[in-house]
Amino acid sequence: AGTVTIVFQIVGASTERMSALEEGDAFQDFVGPLGCPSELVEEDLEELKKKKIMFVAGGVGAAPVYPQVKWMHEHGIDVDVVVGAKNHDMLILEDEMKAVAGNLYVCTDVCVAIGPMIMMKFVCLLTKKLNIPTIVSMNPIMVDGTGMCGACRLQVGDEIKFACVDGPEFDGHLVDFDQAMRRQAQYKTEEGRAMLKLQEGATHHGGCGNCNS
Questions:
Q1: CA proximity to 135, closest of 127, 147, 143, 145
Q2: Which of 105, 119, 171, 182 has its CB 3.0 to 4.6 Å from that of 115, i.e. a possible disulfide?
Q3: What single DSSP character describes residue 14?
Q4: Does the pLDDT at position 169 exceed 80?
Q5: Strand order of the sheet with strand 103-107?
């Protein structure tokens, strides 16, 4: 279309002045493109199509990522794109990226972590440092699911909660994961005995003094 799109973030006096420009205003000078093209454009297209490629764009990094992903799309190559921003208001080029990415994953305001207890603990340690609100699912410690057994008793901040009736989702930065993992470990012995009995079937001797049979 004979136009150039300039993407910038206001961080100082110059970009503040740029944001105040209106139609008809001008820059004193403009230079580009600079540097070397992406190495990907030099590769054989058929070989590129065999590869799994992911682009990760943070903040205004989405601007230089977008033309590369667009080039890939125009040449029949689907790539995955992760776009991250400090918050939703600072997210840029989402619609444009969605139109050319094979799969687009947007990361902004909140993290939702679901998985093994130790994984969720360390995700929360990281997101707390980064000041990213994080939701976790405490279903790994649920047993009967009705609130009757008390197995999923959980310390959340200064409150006692039960994962099955109060959750399973909680603010991950308030969950006492060490306590929850100790509680989860209490059932490992019983689970092991039950599995041993199931595997040995009729040959299970029951004489070890631990299996109650």
A1: 127
A2: 119
A3: H
A4: yes
A5: 54-58, 80-84, 103-107
